[in-house]
Backbone:
C-alpha cells in the first residue's frame, strides 16, 4: 500500500467499515475488459476468514463470468464526505474508508446453506431477521466470495 499513513490493520476497525457499507463492487474477468457490478451483500468473519455472500438471478453475465474464472476482486467504501478547503481546487478531496480484497467466488447450492447466506445478507442490509423457505432460496442464485487477502484504508475528515 502506497499510503501507509492511511492503512488500517486493526480487524475490528475494518469490520466496522464493512458494517457501515451497503454495496460491494465485485470485479470479474471478462476477456480484454474487466466487468464490475455493484451488489448488496452480507458477510461473516470466522477464524480469520472474511467471506461475503451475495445473490441474484439464476442466469446472466455475472454468473457466467464466475463460472469461467472464479478469481474475483471486491471493493467497498463508506464514510464518504467531501472535504472542502478554500479557493484552490487541488486542496479539495474526500474523507472515506475502504476495503479491497481478492478471493475466490463459489456457488452456494445446499438449501440450508443458501438460507443461512440469505439471512446473513438480509441481516446486514436491514438489521432484521427474516424467514426463508427452501422454495424461496431455490428461486435465486446465491454465491460467496472467500477472500485470500484484503487491505483497508481510511482518510478521516480533517479536524480544524
Residues:
Amino acid at each position: 500500500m502506497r499510503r501507509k499513513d492511511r492503512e488500517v490493520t486493526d480487524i475490528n476497525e475494518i469490520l466496522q467499515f464493512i458494517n457501515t457499507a451497503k454495496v460491494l463492487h465485485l470485479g470479474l474477468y471478462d476477456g480484454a475488459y474487466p466487468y464490475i457490478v455493484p451488489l448488496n451483500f452480507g458477510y461473516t468473519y470466522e477464524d480469520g476468514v472474511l467471506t461475503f455472500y451475495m445473490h441474484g438471478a439464476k442466469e446472466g453475465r455475472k454468473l457466467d463470468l464466475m463460472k469461467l474464472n472464479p478469481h474475483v476482486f471486491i471493493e467497498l467504501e463508506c464514510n464518504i464526505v467531501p472535504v472542502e478547503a478554500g479557493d484552490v481546487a487541488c486542496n479539495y478531496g474526500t474523507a472515506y474508508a475502504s476495503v479491497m480484497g481478492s478471493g475466490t467466488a463459489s456457488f452456494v447450492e445446499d438449501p440450508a446453506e443458501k438460507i443461512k447466506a440469505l439471512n446473513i445478507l438480509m441481516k446486514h442490509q436491514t438489521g432484521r431477521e427474516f424467514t426463508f423457505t427452501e422454495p424461496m432460496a431455490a428461486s435465486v442464485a446465491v454465491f460467496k466470495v472467500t477472500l485470500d487477502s484484503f487491505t483497508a484504508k481510511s482518510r478521516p475528515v480533517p479536524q480544524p
